[in-house]
Amino acid sequence: MNERISRDDVAHVARLACLSLTDAELDAFTNQLSNILEHAADLDALELAEVEPTAHPLPLVNVFRDDEPGELADREKFLASAPQVENNQFKVPPALGDPS
Amino acid sequence: MNAREISSAIRKGETTAKDVLENHLTVIQDREEEIHAFNLVMTEEARNEAEGIDALIAKGKDPGPLAGIPVAVKDNICTLGIPTTCSSKILDGWRPPYDATIIKRLRDAGAVIVGKTNLDEFAMGASTENSAFGPTRNPLDTTRVPGGSSGGSAAAVAAGFAPLAIGSDTGGSIRQPAALCGVVGVKPTYGRVSRYGLVAFASSLDQIGPFAETVSDAALLLETISGHDPLDTTSIIEPPLDLSTALTQGVKGLRIGVIDELSGGAVEGISDEVLSCLDDAVQALTTAGAIVERTSVPSTVYGLSAYYVIAPAEASSNLARYDGVRFGPRVDAKTTSEMMVATRTAGFGDEVKRRIMLGTYALSAGYYDAYYGKSQKVRTLIMNDFANAYEKYDLLLSPTAPTTAFPLGDKTEDPLQMYLQDICTISSNLAGHPAMSVPFGKGIDGLPVGIQVLAPAMDEHTMFRAGAVLEFSNQGQA
What we know:
Chain A has helices at residues 7-16, 23-40, 75-79, and strands at residues 85-86, 89-90.
């Protein structure tokens, strides 16, 4: 197995991405991601020092609408999609402090 | 009947939207269990819409250019109050609080939305096997995949479930399934069609476009959904396309370059049967008066590598919103962060996890320059190479996909092999250019081959001229 990305790197990236992997998944993903990054290594052959990066196909400029009052989004409609709601707000388990 | 014929017959009162819909629902009833093109068939809603169209006609009003035409819509496009799943468990039960702009445009034009089509989860894949709800099968051979990620939309048109369908194309997700299912598929110029209400995968690459049985029908649908939308800040400020003259204009005098790298040159894996169809397509365009020659667009070789860094990087950011707080199901846990991990781990499939991790890695400290920074520079090279090519040529040509439709399960264990399906289509997304796939010839197994016509940004008109000629010539041979 090539080592473009280590098992520890994959475990770290999974933590950053809020994903939990089993040992078997860690092995499989490490192998697959290594293969993909190995393929991407063909870019190393290119001389890119003088090339400007492109982030987007269009020359984007900020778009502003006129600052006029419009229709407000319907709060009920958006809250209706949430798994848990209390007092017209999204409810989550404790984010700070000791949960127990 | 194709879409234009249906709309014309309904507007003339020769048939009704209701009859047209019922005919299509019967075809769906017959074969949907076997094909699984849809995540949801909207039978009741569609019947109501069709009745509305017939009522307008009865009052002497014109319902619009898509009057009574059943249209299938990819299930990553938001429909007010109707489940929109992206074929992911993480959106199970979610009903969008608004319609995508293109849904409004379809309805304003008189279309009848017949259902939401299956896709690879969050449009990540090339076979529709990554759907949480099971794969779609190719209507021409049900042991084969329909391609992806818009496999459900391609299959819906190929099976006669709907004469028109909507897909999205981030790296080939309209064109490759169109090729594998033997229908026409178009990725318009980036910004040509509003993305408002399209669930984001890779925002700088995603673009909505049409599927149809014919080039003319694809033009009709693209005209209807194109045009500026103030709700999408990347929408190009242009009126809707008018492609009517392109369909009969021919290609006499057009200069067309065949991309050598994708046509048997530097890129390996393009099958002989596909290359043989490309040769025939070159012959057909030449006979029709175009000047066709091989040309080099060198950096297309590197498109795949750049894409599989850039698209996952953007996806890792876009998919951060699925955290069990505001929509979709939640897996309960003691703390918010544990709840988010549990929800995302249970909700996403393997391919989505793979891409989120790949993108997170490519953007992480210490690797950003090596992967993401480098890929953005390759994107510049590709745009420069296209600009050079379009100084000499009006259009470019290549195969759409390296092979005909492959068997289910063939590539599911090796993600890189699946990614290679996009080798010919990816560069257009990186450049933001339009490209379309037109069926042309068959492989040795009798399955269809698609030829890709590429055009510079904003020149869908010239692209459709070549598409129409290829279709005409292909029908002559059939």
